[in-house]
Design goal:
Low-confidence stretches: none
Number of helices: 10
Distance between the termini: 9 Å
CATH architecture of the largest domain: 3-Layer(aba) Sandwich
Radius of gyration: 18 Å
Mean pLDDT: 94
Protein name: Ornithine cyclodeaminase
Number of strands: 15
Number of domains: 2
Order of helices and strands: HHEEEEEHEHEHEHEEEEHEHEHEH
CATH topology of the largest domain: Rossmann fold
Strand order of the largest sheet: 8-7-6-9-11-15-13-14
Largest sheet: 8 strands, parallel
GO molecular function: hormone binding
Pfam families: OCD_Mu_crystall
Strand content: 15-25%
Structural class: alpha/beta
Helix content: 25-40%
Shape: globular
Length: 308
């Protein structure tokens, strides 16, 4: 690794995590038998938020993501996710880097959704519907534009100002963007959809197109939800449901509230092992988060510092 300041701000962290490199590192990580990811600690806070302690390691790198999630900050100048990812050298125990936690979370989540769409979406060209115009909405917009070549995007948000701001950003990227107040109606015109809201209520419930792909990333506890139960059961019956990791068994609120057997759904690792053909019919990819994705981000950042 090149000599550099170990403490990186949001801009410096993002610069070390370009989406093509991050997706490639996620693929490598899923084939790396040395990776270990202990169960994450989630500690409720008196404010209604949560403290997350998420370790992961391989034969060379160990990381811990230490972040707070504060839903009450949604719609305020304060970020809902705050914290850091600390990266260590396994051999010496030395601290190599400290990455900006919210930036890592946003970019690795969008990269996982992008990889799933690249491998699983029946119609990957869009238009793309984004429900939720916050940090994750921005990250998914940029990732899908760069990684899939999406040129048209429809944005839905409970905050009209946030939706307009994200649409304006999309236009600076050369995309055609429009805002809608009816995400369910827009789903009929969009074969790609991402839900990235605070997951306090159902935001999509209409049935998707036969060639639809939905990446649901907002809900990561049994009580959180973005997708209607009828929608989830419909895709499970007529198409295919995938989860990011086996941890979704205890975390995928959308699927659990639909009373689906989450343990029967294939994971992204199963997909990458080449055991599954590209599915027919609508696809739901449920992402709950995993410290392994943060480890992949740390490895990507270290490669960038090393000039690899």
């Amino acid at each position: 690794m090149k000599d550099a300041s170990p403490l990186l701000d949001a801009r410096q962290t993002a610069a070390r995590l370009p989406y093509p490199a991050l997706v490639a590192e996620i693929v490598r990580l899923l084939g790396d038998d040395s990776v270990q990811v202990p169960e994450r600690l989630v500690q409720p806070l008196a404010s209604g938020g949560s403290l997350f302690v998420m370790p992961a390691m391989d034969g060379r790198v160990a990381i811990t993501k230490l972040i707070t999630f504060t839903p009450a900050n949604a719609g305020t100048p304060r970020a809902t996710i705050q914290g850091d990812v600390v990266v260590f050298d396994v051999a010496s125990g030395a601290r190599w880097l400290v990455l900006d936690g919210p930036t890592v979370t946003a970019r690795r989540t969008a990269a996982v959704s992008l990889l799933a769409a690249q491998r699983l979406a029946p119609n990957p060209h869009g238009p793309l519907l984004i429900v939720g115009a916050g940090v994750q909405g921005l990250a998914h917009l940029e990732a899908f534009a760069e990684g899939l070549g999406v040129t048209d995007v429809v944005i839905a948000s409970r905050s009209p100002a946030s939706a307009q701001a994200l649409a304006a950003h999309a236009q600076t990227l050369g995309l055609r963007a429009q805002v809608t107040q009816n995400a369910n109606a827009a789903l009929a015109e969009c074969p790609l959809a991402v839900t990235c809201t605070p997951a306090a209520a159902v935001v999509l419930e209409t049935l998707p197109r036969g060639d639809g792909f939905i990446a649901a990333v907002g809900a990561f506890t049994p009580t959180m939800v973005e997708l209607g139960s009828v929608l989830c059961r419909h895709i499970a019956e007529t198409g295919t449901v995938f989860v990011d990791t086996a941890n979704a068994l205890h975390e995928a609120g959308d699927l659990m509230q639909a009373e689906l057997d989450v343990g029967r759904f294939a994971t992204l690792a199963d997909v990458m092992r080449g055991e599954l053909a590209r599915p027919a019919g609508p696809v739901l990819f449920k992402s709950c988060g995993w410290a392994g994705w943060d480890l992949a981000a740390a490895r990507t950042a270290l490669r960038a510092d090393a000039g690899q």
